[in-house]
């Protein structure tokens, strides 16, 4: 994840611009409740990891069994809403003032959207997820190897494609309109102003909305950090730097990398981190290109094209799949994969939404939706086709292709390094992969803490450093707590549980966005009608005047001459004329 653009003063904030005390809390009604909830989770999970893991597993089962269809329907609704917004009559409304031009050029904007699409998750699951679906198919999916490979790619594209980015687009569009068009602070609550009204937004309900967004975002960030540290440890173990991966090693790595991320805040090297993030995107692109060129290049390109076609062929059925015919095995699979992803994307949405909103000033609604849905989705498809396609190709050759032990099963964090090790320059590529993951970890923690801090500060885009350090540290602590409480399963459950209230807020954001854009569109339509009417009247008047000037004698010449002759020859009219001239104290004309 790329870091956010340089912060600017808060727009539309109703707080006075007085000097801030060093450790003052700008929004205590949001800051302290969010902090209390997160600390409670951390303390309980670290103090009672086994019991916490059991409770989380139980809660995940309840959520999947009871709310699985809810996640399916709500994410499908977000996809439909996002596409409709882009194609609707609202598409020409600008996310900014009418005379605002886009802050970034089209290629720079695409590059930053690409940056938003890249992250720890893609590196972690890029090779292992399609491979897992190929070797251990989803319950109810069967067929020969070719059919299983096609189904694996379609399912992966579902999890990482339009659905994920539609979730981000819903939040990003609502925030971009609120921030750039209406001049409101960078805060989730203000995106709901058209629905709730200013009084409720400023009141307790608005505070609760921001608390929900903070907790959800922090757990989303912690999930990414937890996945990233597992893969960093696996890479170091593969390279022989460390021995077996243990919880102690994971905790040490989280602490070290979190310290590096917070040090960037303290030392004020934000520009350096941004530069490092851009370099990291180049390294990720180099890694992708190396796997493509050093592997079965033409096969991977054919797989990309065919997988995109298979995805569009299967997407509707996959979108609404609820494992209704596959019993408990299907529900378990649904909870561990699709429901987890929908929960992760929803809890991560405030973070990504703020990012894409901040870089989209001056874009129209249609440009925003098209860019957010198409660019990152295509990049994601390419990444999974190359990484996942390479893994499937090797596994197809038999005995796991050296990527995993058929008896022990797939270990997701190890698959990438086993894949890279099978290619020329495998050690170099593995070192590059570890560096890429570590930098994604650092930039995600740094940017995540900034977004959370802005939300906790009432929309202040330049929050105090001490609170940003605190939120970055809490992100690391939550990742540690969840890993100790159950590893990947606990990370998944944390994302799923925190996404439930966030999803309700997102439904409100959809309604608020529609109300705001509908009202503005009506104003624009009335203004356009008035302008067209005025323009039509002006043109008609000009045409009539021009025609009369050119053809006056033709239309009225004879009538005027007759009237003049009649007036000159009628004595009574002449007497009346004399009287009028006397009243005007002028000499009458001689008749």
From TrEMBL:
It is found in: Cell membrane. The keyword Membrane applies. It comes from the Bacteria. InterPro entries: BCCT_CS, BCCT_transptr. GO terms for cellular component: plasma membrane. Its main location: membrane. The keyword Plastid does not apply. NCBIfam families: bcct. Belongs to the BCCT transporter (TC 2.A.15) family. This is BCCT family transporter. It comes from Cryobacterium frigoriphilum.
